[in-house]
Amino acid sequence: MADKAIALYEKMQKLNFSHNTLTYNNLMMLYLKLGNAEKAPSLLQEMKAENISPDTFTYCLMMKSYATLNDIDSVERVVKEIEGMLKVP
């Protein structure tokens, strides 16, 4: 089923279907469940390149991904990014 989900996502890209946060979050969750946490950061970069704003769940998935990869520096970077978003001007 994972192969079908990834194939569907790739087909959506080729057809220029609109992506949103939910699409990326679901794909990140799939990669985490499959033990492919290293694929989540590239999805976050793709989201940002398409001007799709990550939500709270996206950041939670990213922290889990980095923690799975034992990349604590990146977990801390995500926390700082969230803190920066929460600061009131």
TrEMBL record:
Protein name per Swiss-Prot or TrEMBL: Pentatricopeptide repeat-containing protein
Annotated TM spans: none
Keyword Repeat: yes
Gene Ontology cellular component annotations, sorted alphabetically: mitochondrion
SUPFAM superfamilies hit by this protein: TPR-like (SSF48452)
Repeat as UniProt keyword: yes
Organism: Vanilla planifolia (Vanilla)
Alphabetized UniProt keyword annotations: Repeat
